[in-house]
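Sequence only, no structure available. Ideas?
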Amino acid sequence: MDLDSHAEDLASDLGVDNEEVKRDLQNLVEYSVPIGEAKQSLRRKYGDESAGGGGGPTSKAIGEISPDDGNVTVTGVVLTAGERSIRYQGSDHVIVEGELADESGVIDYTAWEDFGLEPGDAITAGNAGVREWDGEPELNLGEHTSISAVDDSPEVPYEIGGESSLADLRTGDRAATVDVRVLECEERTIDGRDGETEILSGVLGDESGRLPFTNWDPQPEIEEGAAVRLENVYVREFRGVPEVNVSEFSDVTALDREIDVGDDAPRMGVGEAVATGGVYDVELVGNLIAVRDGSGLIQRCPECRRVVQKGQCRTHGEVDGEDDLRVKAILDDGTGTVTVVLDEGLTEQVYGGDVDDAREEARDAMDQEAVADTIRERIVGREFRVRGHLSVDEYGANHDAVSFAESDDDPADRAENFLAEVAR
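Reply:
I predicted one. Tokens follow.
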């Protein structure tokens, strides 16, 4: 149910102006008040002492909770619990985030009060608010929530403590623990919410794969080549892929053992990879079915490096564009399609020349598109193996390639594997 529907139902129950109720409800929701709690607050404001139209919060199994629920009472086991500082209504506020589970499922929670939650605790959360986050329900544990310990702990089929591999992390995960090797690390100065801030950024690796990271409170244990255990990290999206965030509340411990990191990227089908919402380092294999417009010899803004169209940069207006090479091609493996983007170096490999050669071909043909046509002749209709970073947004899926080579797979083997996958 959307906000308009909630407001309309509430206004009808209370016999007051719909627009006034909608305005009040929207103000409360914008301040992260769960919809159920906001509606109860407005019932009290307009003189409805029942404050909820049907008694207290409903007791529910975690797997039954939906974003349309208002306030609920749940019993479960705390799987993870990690502190994080956020900027809320103009000031810093420390919250606790994690996952709560019972036999029926798992749900994320945010605790706005210090309830002393620890992984492994069996609790009942009374009057917990429910909000929608990325299409899924999430519990808000606030000042009106009661937390009590339970003796009869539910049996849950989930690991307690948040230990994970990099490949299993997804955007939105919080209070996770990973054992990793720091593959790349650099110090940077950024404009943070409190002015210039020193951070560390780079790439982490384990046996399952690689992910970029940002350390917002640089710690000496995090340096290139180090093996470390990172506890209480959270994952957010950065440039379309998951990124590990190490905060001031994270625990960083040097490990006295090696972390093996494979040289190969995990291979996935295009459809499977796109369904993840973004993968930092992945190998795709498929047929190049088209080279898109905007490929070949292009011009970029000298300031921001955006592609220039007819001498115009979207940010800096009229500019003298600098020549560059790029390919945007459609890769198809039968399970889905993705746009593969080749930078100047990889484009030179498939084109067989550099920017100067491309300028000469365009001049001779009196057509800049001649360079893209040459590239089409060389790669369309052939099968390639592409490794790089996959991002997915409202415009589609893009794979920024770091390596690009013609596949040497046996077509019969690939067909057999594909049929076996489809048959599952």
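The chain is about 20% helix and 45% strand.
Hope that gets you unstuck.
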